[in-house]
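Explain this one:

_____
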Amino acid sequence: MTRGTFAADGTGPLSRLTLTQLRRRTSMKWRTYPEDVLPLWVAEMDVPLAEPVARAITDAVALGDTGYPAGTAYAEALARFARARWGWDGLAVERTAIVPDVMLGIVEMIKLLSGPGDPVVVNCPVYPPFYQFMGSMGRPVVEAPLDPHGRIDLTALEDAFRRASRGTGRPVYLLCSPHNPTGTVHTAAELTEVARLARTHGVRVVADEIHAPIVASGVSFVPYQSVPGGQDGISLMSASKAWNLAGLKAALAVAGPEAAGDLARLPEEVSHGPSHLGIIAHTAALDEGGNWLDAVLSGLDDNRRLLAGLLAEHLPAVRHSPAQGTYLAWLDCRGLGLGDDPAAVFLDRGRVALNSGTPFGTGGTGFVRMNLATSPDLITEAVRRMTAALP
């Protein structure tokens, strides 16, 4: 698929807003730190809202259509998107449920598939809320570290499955696909083996596929439920990351054919959590926001190349492999001699905010996560500040 542009002058969404405009925003990314700090941390994009999404919201507001959500338009739009983008026809609208957002949806799926005290397997380093939410639910986390290339280590995963399946509990594997923070996009072969191991050891799979629409050129996302053995999985999907809609709450739980009975037990009140305006926005994004998304993806390809070049020139001791998916960069800063938390040094000395690797679990010490969903100018300035922060 050819990736388009956002404007007639060739300016993509990632380059449309100035730093002055961005600093007027009141969201977490722009209000957590003082104004002299350049924020490239939390997963918000520095983009204008896609026009079809903005139009859908303003039309709803003009109608006063701000009540409770109803219907299956969101799921139908996601099914069309999955068919067009991933060649997947297996998303059945009748096996979906709306949930407030992906992480809260994961919590509800974990409740359906396991009980307090049952273990949850994760591939570390991984998205910190996996640890936080599982801890608050009384689910012990069993780590299966990624391999040195940031891919699923199937031997480590099987060992974790064995440990998690001891006893009489109901273990769950919380799969991050594409993986956050490494940006790894799992292959069909890898996911097929994951499904085989999960079935062998009696482990149920819940897949966080929130970053699924965001892949590098030449890379294909593979839905977990599309591989042999994935039919008893439950996935959480949303338009929030790809179209920067985190403030418009809405996500979908998608069950495979063998998990339909599990999803049917979801308490009815969970569907009250999503925003009606959120569902309208997400539906418009999936159905009408394809050209805008393609322009973002093209800009992200450029930004990955830009970052690789900047690091090679100015911070050659930082090890980095451009991500296959997400708009995140996972940087190994252990060669800089900045200790366990280089993000703290970059913030204090360089006034650039990155995510510390430590909360991502085993394997995160000495790393930082950088958000590339911004303009090339801000990425260049961030690397300049990081370089200036070195002793």
